[in-house]
Amino acid sequence: MAEHLAEAVTDDPATISDLTDQLMEAADREGIEVSEIYEEVGSVFEVIAGAVQHRDGSLPENDLTEFDLLVGRLSREANLTEAQARDLIERFGTDWEKLLNEAYFLKELEAGRRQE
Q1: Most distant CA atoms of the chain, gap in Å
Q2: Lower Cβ count inside 10 Å, N or C end of the chain?
Q3: pTM of model > 0.70
Q4: Is the separation of the CB atoms in 59 and 95 below 8 Å?
Q5: Phi, psi at residue 3, to the nearest 5°?
Q6: Least confident window among 11-15, 83-87, 104-108, 111-115
Q7: Helix, strand, coil percentages in the chain from 3-state DSSP, rounded to 5
Q8: How many other C-beta atoms lie within 10 A of the C-beta of residue 31?
Q9: Backbone angles phi, psi at 110, to 5 degrees
Q10: How would you classify residue 43: left for phi > 0, otherwise alpha for psi between -120 and 50, otherwise beta?
Q11: Phi, psi of 2 (to 5 degrees)
Q12: Domain residues of the chain, as ranges?
């Protein structure tokens, strides 16, 4: 999604709808079922609209859905507890690469402490 958001300079619903279509087509090419996507995020349109509004890495003020999705993804992909993932997002924002770097650093610190 991040690769396409740079092209979307507006939060126009038609643009977001086009991005939603692109995302669904890409998922289909990768063999990802539409039902899996909707089960995970509910409304793809709303997720993309939120991403467009918060492309600067800021957190949504009142919408916990996007925040919770990011917590879940970071927790799964970096093998963190949800509390650890939530803490990293609150401290470092929503930049995915930065979050992964911090998560891996945290895991290395924990592994070092267990060896001591």
Answers
A1: 56
A2: C
A3: no
A4: no
A5: -65, -30
A6: 11-15
A7: 75, 0, 25
A8: 6
A9: -65, -40
A10: beta
A11: -60, -35
A12: 1-55, 58-116
